[in-house]
Amino acid sequence: MVKRNSKKNLYIIASLLLLCIVSICGSCSERIHNNEYILVTDMVGDTVRIAKNPKKVACVSRTTYDLLVAFGLQDKIDGAYKNIYDNPWVDVINKNAKNEYRYEYEESYETFLSRNVDLVFAPEKYIADNLRAKGINALCISLYGNPTYDEYVYFFADTIIKLWDDKEVHEKVIKWKSEVENAIEECSLHKSTKQKKLYYVRADKDRGVEYTDTKGFFTEFAFRKLGYDFAGATINVTKPSKEEICKYNPDVFVIGGIFQNKIRQQLKNDAVYKNLPAVKNDNIYTIPIGITSFEQISITTPIFFYDMSNKLNKTNYDVYNMLKETYKEYFNVKISEEQIKYMLDGRDINGNTVIND
Description:
Blueprint: H1 2-34, E1 37-41, E2 47-51, E3 57-59, H2 62-70, E4 77-81, H3 89-93, E5 101-103, H4 109-114, E6 119-122, H5 125-133, E7 138-140, H6 155-163, H7 167-188, E8 196-202, H8 218-225, E9 228-230, H9 231-235, H10 242-248, E10 252-256, H11 260-269, H12 277-280, E11 284-286, H13 301-313, H14 319-331, H15 337-344
């Protein structure tokens, strides 16, 4: 009798323990299912525990602002790096831009705390590290990949899907990724059989012809796909001398950024450069400007490939209508035919150079 009761008691205790375990696991499963917190690894390999569906983010990294707006997360943006707003197209395409906060490149952590920011997209590892040390969630979304950008083209888009549970956002991300993949595949078919040399001028800052980018930058990946040898992969410095550029002797110059028209004139008038065959033959091409420079990861990345293919490899893609449809679909903005032409020419809404010559 005692043994039977003992067995019964053990059975009851075991049942209660099992019930507790099921209850606990059920709670855990619910938390996991609801995705309250996730671990996200950024572009430099740091893993951060972040609450799902952040409500207030700061886009200090240049390559995050455009895509968040385009994918329907405009209401989650508290502000962005102040230089982004130097581009007048931002106000045209994003009507809420005037209400957003302008952040410094190395903004103080007190500012983020005072503005109750959930997450900062930081441009460099040291900035993200410093913010996290102060208790602010930050992910490094860099302009550069290591060792190249090949594995990072869709990195931020995939991060958006991880962070936000929103079916419509996910659908837009997947559609954009497909458009980029198709553009790269199509344009790669038309690349030159003879690899020509290309020098890219990064004109988002007024630093003259002698300001470029290196192997890890997206442009190196893009122009390599188009069949060109990227000068930055050979010279491997962001500020080469005139002598180094002339020694490289590019077949073409490509200029992108809001200072592009100003720097194009500098290139053509410079006593050192004007004797280079590429300058003599006017093999100088500019990159369109939208809500961000086309040569940085953005909603217009597919159009960047098609436009550069037209200019460099003499294809005939209808980038005009592509651009018109893209801004209508992703930003719900109707841009006039005249404005599209200005955008493709790297000019502002009134047809002026974005930065005065």
